[in-house]
Amino acid sequence: MSRAMSETLLSRAAGETRSAIIEIPAAQGCLEIDDLSLRYGEQPALRGLSLRVPRHSVTAFIGPSGCGKSTLLRVLNRLHDLNDEVTQSGRVLLEGEDIHGPGVAVAQLRRRVGMVFQTPNPFPMSIYENVAFGLRLQAPLKKRRRDEIIEWALVSAALWDEVKDRLHDSAWTLSGGQQQRLVIARTLAVQPEVLLLDEPASALDPISSLKIEELIRNLKSRLSVILVTHNMQQAARVSDYTAFLEGGELVEYAATDDLFTNPRLTRTEDYITGRMS
Amino acid sequence: MDITSDTHSQHISRQFNQELEELKTHLMAMGGLVEQQIQEAVSALLDGDSRLAERVRDNDKAVNDMQLKIDDECTRVLARRQPAASDLRLVLAVIRATSDLERIGDEASKIARNALALIESSQNAKGMVEVRHISEHVRKMLRDALTAFARFDIELALEVVREDDSVDSEYASAMRSLMTFMMEDPRSISSVLSVMWILRALERIGDHADNLAEYVVYLVKGLDIRHVDPEKLDEAAIKRQD
């Protein structure tokens, strides 16, 4: 898709800049990352990243290995909290509130910001109990209400039809792709506002991957999804916005349609087209 | 970002480089053939060479075959490589360009058919000066558009876009004078009509060359300037676009 010939687009100054970052209006943002830097010991992993993630959309983080995309995802869920090696500066705001603020409990943050990893990690218990797990940690619920939520979560994760007759079988009886959807259902059951997906389909066969991608597209009507992936075609297929990271820096952040047809920077172009840079 | 004619040969996959290079080479070969078709069709007309006109008419199949072959190669690249960014724009530009070149081929064979009719009627046709003039003009446009494609040359492409307007006005003025001929001498209507068809074909060739030039802007800058009024085209802004 080509860009329209609007005055604003054409009035850009010539010459290659270091970064090209789309400005998402504050009112549309659910997460705001503001000058975020992070070091593992002496090793810098993120260098002054600033971007706003829009609500009810899918945002993909892409970039070569070691570019900091998974590190960034982990910051959003405060997974570095217990790592003494990590030094961090800058702010992350969830709906305007600093996630590292004194009033924010990690457990509460992780309910609002759910995370799913590359390898499916169902707990060694039944399908039903896997999805109920997060709910049981919260306020007690009547069984009927809990059943409703579990059904809703499994339907949302596009797994219900495949497991409705065997909810009490072990989660290990499911295939890899089903296990990943179960983990997503488990995350959805506590009704998060943001869903972080770290290479959610890279351990799956192509058909299971497509099911996960379809699921991601359907989920965005009720939450915001951030997807880290090595698979550029996958980012192009499912995301609305794409951020390209390299060497811990945010190089380019744009609408996916623009980034994959006409990236602004050579560094982005070289990466997404598989060129030597 | 600006891309150059080298941009498509820097992939990690050398096979991919080669596939994209072949698309360009084959497009240029098709462009060369089409250019030759126009030149021969017009020569056949001006020299009254019916053999040459027949050859042009029959050669149209070769142009069509090249379009099918290049489209097939583009389909393969899309299916196997899922190209992005400037690679994607190259494939799309080539697909669009083959379709315009094929239409130019059709126009050349239309010129050849009308030339045959004129030669057979052995009438002294009017309007040959205009045919010669406009044909030289549109052939230059086509040559420049192809060169701009081969070199990723925006300046040259924009020049072609500008030229199309002057071809259009040359065409309009030629049509007016031929109309006058017809009114003055009704016996000439049939031959003048043939010449009008030929001029019409040449004018269309100019339009297709203009399209080709627009694809070059899309390819290099990612800007779609089709359907933009040439007078409103901000050329400085296009060149500045990074």
UniProtKB/TrEMBL annotation, chain B:
Q: What does this protein do?
A: Plays a role in the regulation of phosphate uptake.
Q: Which SUPFAM superfamilies match?
A: PhoU-like
Q: Name one Pfam family in it.
A: PhoU
The keyword Cytoplasm appears for this protein: yes
Query: What Gene3D superfamilies does the record point to?
Result: Phosphate transport system protein phou homolog 2, domain 2 (1.20.58.220)
Per the UniProt entry, the signal peptide is none
| Keywords from the UniProt entry | Cytoplasm, Phosphate transport, Transport
A biological-process GO annotation: phosphate ion transport
GO CC term (a single one): cytoplasm
The protein, known as: Phosphate-specific transport system accessory protein PhoU
Q: Does the keyword Cytoplasm apply?
A: yes
Q: Which family does it belong to?
A: Belongs to the PhoU family.
Q: Which gene encodes it?
A: phoU
Protein location: Cytoplasm
